[in-house]
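For the sake of transparency, this paper describes our internal protein records without simplification. Such a record has a labelled line for the sequence and another for the backbone structure tokens. Nothing more is needed to write down the fold, since each code stands for a local backbone conformation. For reference, a complete record is included directly beneath this paragraph.
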Amino acid sequence: MHKELRICIVGAGAIGGVTAGVLVREGFTVQLVTKHEDLAETIRDSGISVSGQCGHFTVPVPAVAGPESLVGKFDYVLIATKADAMADAARGMVPFLYENSRVVSMQNGICEEILAGVVGNDRTTGCVVGWGGTMHEPGRVEMTSGGEFILGYPYREPDEYLEKLAGILGHVVETRITRDILSERYSKLIINSCITTLGALCGLYLGEMLAKRRARILFIEIIREAVAVAGAMKLQIAPAAAGKLDFYKFLAHGPFSSFKRHLIIRMIGMKYRNLKSSSLQSLERGRRTEVDNYNGYISTKGKAFGVATPVNDQLTLMIHEIEEGKRETVPHNFYQIQL
């Protein structure tokens, strides 16, 4: 289905690597762009090794180091870099776009406005990545948990180009189209602001972390502030966790409401107890996190719309302190946050 279309994937980490490997295995025309020539050569010659929920296989993938080595134009460009590298990646791909090409932001956080500033509103496509992945080493990636892709345009109605893309990505995981991609993106942003950032702050796996009452209290306050900001933005937040977590119901007042909130969070911790924060993994590799696109986004929008976000403000600052070597990653950090 649509295997004649040319697809370029920028970024050979977990998300880009798994997506490229599966699509090539399924017979699609894919070009992978990475930053490193040695990695590009390995992927071309020896293949990318994929494991986990999508099967176990190794497949050679056409790969280049940098967009300057590309030839021709692409129907779809999937940008699977970190959020802070997305704009530069998009600028590098502009010469290789048709007028009707679609450029897809696969980052965590909400990057569509920045992307549109580079490639234009009509090409800009948002994508929520609802499955988990890990890069064990360059060229060896794993789909660690199942899930879905959610696709949508932030500035136009769905069309045939989006439907074709959904059909293509449906070979990787179940893919659905939404008319309100920003609602879905904000929902995922809240989850990352809770799980990913708190994990980076304390250094614990999710099960250990959410067994702590203080962590659960912070989890609730992050959501409370995020929902208040969304209200000021006139943004209706989509439910998270495949529709099982409705943030509005989660915060509703009623009999035993506090007990129910803590119980829901404990259940999340038990179900995903071995989950390790991706931001924590970045810190362990000596890299910066994407906190500015999670809690920092909530803080920035809060300031713009006059909504106080003290917990998200403090979390953003503390993660930056860890990045700069001014703070250790320890559970005691939870008690340094003023409520």
